[in-house]
Design brief:
Distance between the termini: 46 Å
Helix content: 55-70%
Order of helices and strands: HHHHHHH
Low-confidence stretches: none
Strand content: under 5%
Shape: elongated
Largest sheet: none
Number of domains: 1
Radius of gyration: 21 Å
Length: 209
């Protein structure tokens, strides 16, 4: 008969083992792409043929080079927000596997939403209970909301034609800047709570991987 019960020992932050995760690569991608976005966004402003508050009509046909540049700008903005969320989610999964082991983590934590995963990991692994109003939770929620708006796009119905200037929009590069700042702040605050995890988080000084 297969045993149904066994003892479990929580691993140390400095447990020895071999693991793989892409969270550091995603962290670097978000930071690097933000730098590219800043350059492209400035190029768009410099090449804009009208006052900044006016929409260029038929841009794809009349201004193809500007159209391509705007598309590149928007792609970079989206990518920054997605990679930042992937960095944070990838880290939480990595941290859970290091402390709990892959089998236990996948069985009990892997399918949790980001915020329940964060709160439960800290409770189980570090005996830290953080409320839903904690600053770390707010940072994670902000990052996740930005990612979800992109990867789970919703359609909206209007009663009639709405000029492009009045439609909901994302501030570029402002939204990406805020997301990267939130990503870095998340890791900084995580380390305030769990200083022993310093070697597990992406290098915030930009040195090494």
């Amino acid at each position: 008969m297969t045993p149904t019960r066994k003892a479990f020992a929580l691993r140390s932050h400095h447990a020895e083992g071999a693991w793989s995760s892409d969270d550091r690569r995603h962290f670097e991608n978000a930071s690097r792409l933000l730098g590219e976005l800043e350059v492209v966004a400035q190029q768009v402003i410099q090449q804009w043929p009208l006052p900044a508050d006016q929409t260029v009509r038929d841009a794809e046909k009349e201004h193809p080079e500007l159209w391509a540049l705007v598309r590149k700008r928007d792609q970079l903005s989206d990518s920054v927000q997605i990679f930042a969320a992937m960095a944070v989610e990838g880290f939480l999964n990595y941290y859970g596997v290091v402390r709990l082991g892959e089998a236990e983590f996948n069985s009990h934590f892997e399918r949790l939403g980001l915020i329940p995963k964060l709160r439960t990991l800290l409770l189980v692994c570090d005996s830290l209970s953080i409320s839903s109003n904690d600053a770390l939770v707010h940072l994670l929620g902000r990052i996740a909301d930005g990612r979800n708006a992109l990867v789970h796009p919703k359609a909206k119905e209007y009663p009639g034609y709405v000029p492009s200037e009045q439609r909901p929009s994302v501030r570029i590069p402002g939204a990406a800047r805020e997301t990267v700042a939130s990503m870095r702040a998340f890791f900084e605050q995580f380390l305030e709570l769990v200083p022993d995890a310093k070697h597990l988080v992406p290098p915030l000084d930009g040195k090494g991987v």
